[in-house]
Amino acid sequence: MHQKAYEQQCGAEEGRHTTTGSPVQRRGLVLFALALGTFAIGTGEFGSNGIIQLFSSSLDVSIPVATYAITAYAFGVMIGSPAITLLAARVNRRTLLLGLMGLFLAGNVLSALAPNIALLIIFRFVTGCVQGAYFGAGAVVAAYVYGPGRGGKAFATVMGGLTVATIVGSPLGTSIGQTAGWRAMYWTVVGIGVLAMLALFVWVPRTDDLRGGSVARELGALRQLNVWLMVVVAALGISSIFAVYTFIGPFITDAVGDDASLIPIALAVFGLGMAVGNYFGGRVADQFESRGLVYGYAGVLVLLVLIGMAGSNLLVLMPALFGVGATMMFAIPTIQVRLTEFAPDAPTLMGALNLAALNLANSLGAIGGAFTLQSGWGTLSTAWAGFVFTSAGLVLYALAVPHGTRTFVPVPAAK
Fold it and tell me: Per the CB 3.0–4.6 Å rule, which of 132, 149, 242, 316 could disulfide with 4?
């Protein structure tokens, strides 16, 4: 019956649910609560990038050493999130979301109080452990609220808070940090997190339909080769986001030769592209097996060539930045849906692995871009690093990941 992107997950979920029906009366409030949580998480993640120089100076360490706090967060997502997901496999998703938000608040409070870089690194790792697990549990709750056949749209809703964070939260947090000190940025994130936790507590339904599953079921997903192939496809392909986003500042000041005041505008343009791509990508993921990923990856390859060859022109660079954000986010919901198709009994773990892949992509894009810069190939050469990674991801998807696994029949429209 439920034959779209989340057919297998819906079957697995329905097989262990004791009640039916979705709390459509409060759908908007539930989704708002989930997105507010991802907005808080995204503001803390991206806002940290904007205050590196501030806590570097305050804690009396070099900027390279200060970046370890950023790297620690990424490792928290890659290592801690799947671990938490497995350990909390049997926990009701509502309870898990509240617990994760509590850990998020603790991590940011401790970050704001950190007296030295060593403790800040530890606290950022702890905070990063929340992200993937939250997105995975949030996707399950959103899928339950939307109902069968709209899993891509559900995941896009959860991701929506993150894209808004790139447009509003990160610039706002950075500005607060520059005005009131870097610790104030983390206190601001704590305030948003408190609101998100209250919203989750009030609006996410208390229902046995959101109960967890067995650890063995979640672990079984890790034995699926196709799951790991999709993780690699995601990490390689999406790295082009970070091969561009990480170096937007140098693009503006060095390649274009314009004033640094344009950097926040360029970041916002990129974030707007991400929001648009995420919106449409969620709908395409539910209707087509591979189009979201293939079109997204292919589109970004064209835009990366454009940046590499003509990005020194601001009139070319700005639309291209919007396009890179849009095309990559267009692909991400399809990645989540395909992961869940290959492991329908472990949707929360697949959400965590998806976010782990994104953070691995973060590292790959930054490392690849740094390599091209250190090799003396010019500021815009980071786009070519992204081109290589995304090309490899697209080729791997075309040659190694099974296709034609989905059967389609009409699904009732959302009410």
Answer: 149
Q: Are 136 and 10 in contact (CB under 8 A)?
A: no
Q: Which residues contact 204 (CB under 8 A, 6 or more apart)?
A: 30, 33, 34, 94, 97, 141, 210
Query: Where is average pLDDT lowest: 90-94, 145-149, 398-402?
Result: 145-149
Query: Cα separation of 108 and 87, whole Å?
Result: 22
Output the pLDDT for position 299: 96
Where is 324: in which H helix or E strand? helix 314-342
Contact 374, 305 (CB under 8 A): no
Spatial distance between the Cα atoms of 250 and 230, rounded to a whole number of angstroms:
32
Q: What's the full length of the chain, in residues?
A: 415
Answer yes or no: are the C-beta atoms of 33 and 196 closer than 8 Å: yes
Q: Of 289 and 292, which is predicted with more confidence? A: 292
In this prediction the pTM is 0.71
The residue that leads in pLDDT, 268 or 20, is 268
Q: Quote the DSSP letter at residue 414.
A: P
Structure tokens at 12: 């697995």
pLDDT of 388 over the 90 cut: yes
Q: Which two tokens stand for residue 183?
A: 């610790």
Other residues' Cβ atoms within 10 Å of the Cβ of residue 1 = 11
Strand residues in 150-208 grouped as ranges (E): none
Structure tokens at 278: 């995420």
**Nearest CA among 331, 317, 320 for reference residue 236:** 331
How confident is the model at residue 152, as a pLDDT? Answer: 61
* pLDDT at 11 exceeding the cut of 60: no
Helix (H, G, I), strand (E, B) or coil at 378: coil
pLDDT at 412 over 60: no
Q: Which two tokens stand for residue 331?
A: 């692909």
Q: Which CA distances in Å does 273 have to 195, 276, 319, 320, 328?
A: 27, 5, 9, 10, 9
Is the confidence at residue 408, as pLDDT, over 60?
no
Tokens encoding 414:
């959302």
User: Which residue in this structure is represented by tokens 């070519």?
Assistant: 384
Distance, CA of 271 to CA of 371 (rounded, Å): 25
Residue 164 and residue 388: Cα distance in Å, rounded? 28
Write the burial class of residue 4 (CB in 10 Å: 0-12 exposed, 13-18 middle, 19+ buried). Answer: buried
**What distance in Å separates the CA atoms of residue 238 and residue 388, rounded to the nearest whole number?**
11
Encoded tokens for 136: 């995975």
Identity at 105, one-letter amino acid code: L
